[in-house]
Amino acid sequence: MTALTEASTSRFARIREGELELNIHYNDCGQGTETVVMLHGSGPGASGWANFNRNIEPLVVAGFRVILLDCPGWSKSDSIVCEGSRSDLNARVLKGLMDPLDLDRVHILGNSMGGHSAVAFALSWPERVGRLVLMGGGTGGASPFVPMPTEGIKLLQGLYREPTIDNLKKMMNVFVFDPSDLTEELFQARLDNMLARRDHLDNFVKSLAINPKQFPDFSPRLAEIKAETLVIWGRNDRFVPMDTGLRLVAGIPNSELHVFNNCGHWAQWEHADKFNRMVLDFLSH
Ligand SMILES: O=C(O)CCC(=O)/C=C/C=C(\O)C(=O)O
């Protein structure tokens, strides 16, 4: 297999969905009759490649096509002020990408905001979903146990307002259970991503001012989801609390939950090997 790099897999598409028209960046990796779309989280400087670089190759080697969609407002995709549900906006963009790529049905793996967006997609276009993997996300809404906004979300919003290296390090140290694996190279790459698109940072702050609840609570509609769903959470998640995972399995009829101990909001990164094996097993059975 030729090495997968961000540059060699980088693509753009013009998305048209109703009145929505956007230039969207994605990475297209591998070939296969089944496709897994990976949707990243909402932190400043996030992208499909930044969130999932430890998870692409095992799926490609197993014969899946993997598409990393950069949501509007992140990375090389167009910027946007989102006044309504960002989960539904991202879902519409995914639908808008699937049509020109001739993808009838995809599995969706979503991290945090990406999980919220995967659920929004499954509610709007159920016939176009294979299986769902929801990690550290799937629905907004209040936690009965943890004060909200959580510590992590407060740091994330602070970083959007003041994008400094100190604020970035404070946020990233809370992403993971064990920050000793976070390198200066990783901080610098994330800082570069963030500062390359100040329009994204400004638009996120404007969106929050217009609508502080960017991710609606889908709890009352979860029973509509027929797709088989694997929910994965870190017990030590300080961004989206673990009880959200319990709400998801309580609501989605055909679902199961795996909780990693000693794991923060980035299970796909902190426990990459086991995470990859679980996802492959779930998508292949
Ligand atoms: O506010 C929410 O419910 C979602 C928060 C979210 O998406 C945070 C994600 C952070 C990352 O995974 C990232 O930026 O890499």
UniProtKB/TrEMBL annotation:
Gene3D superfamilies assigned: alpha/beta hydrolase (3.40.50.1820)
Domain AB hydrolase-1: residue ranges: 35-272
Keyword annotations: Aromatic hydrocarbons catabolism, Hydrolase
Class of the enzyme per the UniProt entry, highest EC level: hydrolase
Top-level taxon of the source organism: Bacteria
Function comment: Catalyzes the cleavage of the C5-C6 bond of 2-hydroxy-6-oxononadienedioate and 2-hydroxy-6-oxononatrienedioate, a dienol ring fission product of the bacterial meta-cleavage pathway for degradation of phenylpropionic acid.
Protein name listed in UniProt: 2-hydroxy-6-oxononadienedioate/2-hydroxy-6-oxononatrienedioate hydrolase
Originating species: Pseudomonas cavernae
Gene: mhpC
